[in-house]
Amino acid sequence: MQHSHILKKAAALVSAIGLSFTALSAAPVLSVNASADHILILGDSISSGYGLKEGEFGYADYLADVLGGSVTNMAVPGYSTDDLLAQLEKAEVQEAVKNADFISISIGGNDLLKPAQEYFKPMMKEDETIMEAMRRLAKEGDAETMMIGLTRALTPARSKAKVNYPLIQETLRGLNPDATIVMQTVYNPAEVQASFLEAQNLSADTISKYEQLNKYMNNTVNFLNKVVRELEDVKVADVFNDFTGSGWIYTRVYEKDIHPTALGHAMIAASVLNAAGVESGKSNKFVSAALDLMMSDYNQISESNLALMKKYSQDFAAVKGDMDNSGIVDGMDAQMVLSVYCDTVMNKPLDSLITYRQMLSCDIDGDGKFTSLDAQYVLSYYLSNNVLHQPVSWSQLVH
């Protein structure tokens, strides 16, 4: 058959692509709907969307899409629990709280960050972040001495935040006894991939010291998180738990501080919605946040986190063969397939070359993988329909 001949010609261009992967199915959509006309965002730089690139969405954007309401964002970068309490004394803020149906808050990170910055400031090099300084100082010196110094610097702030969290809850409830209030836990900004540390050619002793520091950071932020989790009259979005284990794909360094990426904001939004008991409602913004990740990053997201984001995602139907997400299969798609093939011949890992969306689009035979055979199908489809003008369907190509 002519189609078989075309497939053989395409196959000559492509050989075995060694890596494959399996797609996760979407989580089922539950039937209970939730909505909020007035969504109020309070807190620090995380809530304000600080550090996001142009075109990226903050977690408030996802909440608005799913809940269908308007957003008032009164979050201020740099705010601590002290600052939020002072803000809640302002008449315009009190009015916004009274009018809100849904209130989401991220606060507490700066209570720890500011004294930590003061502690590290004399020891930091120019253009060095705190996390970079921690790794360097661990390599150069004694991690235990550093942790003792940090504890002295952080203890007053931790004690103050422990008092402030219940006051924030009481103030909000005094102003609005009926709104859904969701408080986020604080994530650990020090978590990095094990392979990242190994790539720095650090000694086993240095890596061990950094792991000690990472454990210390977990314990430090969880001092505050324990207080948040014990609040009785708010919902708790446990961002710490959601980020732990793959925190590096949810955050990026921005102006020497570590803030959530677009994916991090999507994860925070899903965590907030889930904590609030929202069982359905969908946003297209969740789709691009996860599907447009490189497979190398996508594969690091836990199944539970993927399930949460997919719970609030619009259904996505991949266009077969459409690698560039243009809606059609054309020369660009064929070129991209060939480029992927050439890169794999050069021993580049496939999961660093394509996104999850591209994998879904190019899993032509529907086996949950993107293999060399799928690449052949895409090339054959393009050659037959666009070059040889001999129309062929996917079902005719896939036997």
Task: Explain what the structure shows.
The chain is of the alpha/beta class. Residues 1-33 have low confidence and may be disordered. It has helices at 2-11, 45-48, 59-67, 81-87, 91-99, 109-120, 130-140, 143-175, 194-199, 204-229, 239-243, 247-250, 262-275, 284-291, 295-298, 303-311, 331-345, 356-362, 372-387, 394-397, and strands at 38-43, 70-73, 102-106, 180-184, 235-237, 251-254, 257-260. Helices cover 53% and strands 8% of the residues. It starts with a helix and ends with a helix. Helix 1 crosses helix 19. A hairpin with a 2-residue loop joins strand 6 (251-254) and strand 7. The strands form two sheets. Strands 2-1-3-4-5 form a five-stranded parallel β-sheet, sandwiched between helices. The chain has a two-stranded antiparallel ribbon with strand order 6-7.
Total of helices:
20
Mean pLDDT figure: 85
Uncertain parts: 1-33
- The rounded distance between the terminal residues' Cα atoms is 13 Å
Radius of gyration: 25 Å
Strand order, largest beta sheet: 2-1-3-4-5
Topology order in helix (H) and strand (E) letters: HEHHEHHEHHHEHHEHHEEHHHHHHHH
Judging from the principal axes of the Cα atoms, what is the shape? flat
Strand content: 5-15%
Q: How many DSSP-defined strands? A: 7
**How is the biggest beta sheet arranged?**
5 strands, parallel
User: Helices and strands: which structural class?
Assistant: alpha/beta
What is the percent of helical residues? 40-55%
